[in-house]
Design goal:
Order of helices and strands: EHEHHEHEHEHEHHEHEHH
Largest sheet: 8 strands, parallel, barrel
Bound molecules: erythose-4-phosphate
Shape: globular
Strand order of the largest sheet: 1-2-3-4-5-6-7-8
Oligomer: single chain
Length: 219
């Protein structure tokens, strides 16, 4: 399973990259605003900077909602760097834009997917990636991971190349479940990435090893 990092914060991406845990990056307007991008120029600059660092797919989301506006905006985003993947929302207008862009060879990540058939429609429109938001489904008392399993089955049934990005991950168990389901990619917030590394028994074990070694040095 590929690990994408779900943030637009350069320092977080750089730290995860140093750990060898960045096969790609996903951003969205909320994450970009949290990372301090306050205008289009700042947003585009940040996307280019991230692409230069990771040299792996970086999803950048369109800010228009009508296909005739999304398409030129997406072309502009794709022209920023060869690693840019354009993120398009799962709407009627988004599907129209996805079809046009994928025909032009621009990679599209269809986002805000909350049921498996939405993912099927996105794949039929030529999406390179689909992003089911599992945490937001869990939040409203649905089992988000079910649609990941359904999407994987559907894509396997019909031989789609579209990759499933498990998105809206809230905790380490989501990452485990994504891997057990055979998801192509999990996009993980920095905080959860760090939680994956740590275990209290690792810390206790290391402390004891160091203490035992120090005792021998003193004797
Ligand atoms: C990634 O593509 C999504 O934008 C992100 O995972 C959404 O996560 P959230 O539900 O925690 O905002």
């Amino acid at each position: 399973m590929k690990f994408f990092i779900d943030t637009a914060d350069f320092d977080e991406i750089q730290e995860a990259y140093r750990l060898g845990l960045v096969d790609g990056v996903t951003t969205n307007p909320t994450l970009c605003s949290k990372a301090g991008c306050h205008d289009i120029a700042g947003f585009q600059e940040q996307i280019k900077r991230i692409c230069d660092l990771v040299q792996a797919p970086v999803s950048a989301e369109v800010l228009n909602t009508q296909s005739e506006d999304m398409v030129p905006e997406a072309r502009k985003l794709a022209s920023l760097h060869e690693q840019v993947v354009v993120k398009i929302p799962m709407t009627v207008e988004g599907l129209k834009a996805t079809r046009i862009l994928s025909n032009e060879g621009i990679r599209v990540n269809v986002t805000l997917i909350f049921q498996a058939v939405q993912g099927l429609l996105a794949a039929k429109a030529g999406a390179a990636y689909v992003s089911p938001f599992i945490g937001r489904l869990d939040d409203i008392n649905h089992t988000g991971m079910e649609i990941v399993e359904q999407l994987l089955t559907i894509f396997d049934n019909y031989g789609f190349d579209t990759e499933v990005i498990v998105a809206s991950i809230r905790h380490p168990l989501h990452v485990l479940q994504a891997a057990l389901a055979g998801a192509d990619i999990a996009t993980i917030p920095y905080k959860v990435l760090m939680q994956l590394i740590r275990h209290p028994l690792t810390d206790i074990g290391l402390e004891k090893f160091m203490a035992d070694w120090q005792r021998v040095q003193r004797s």
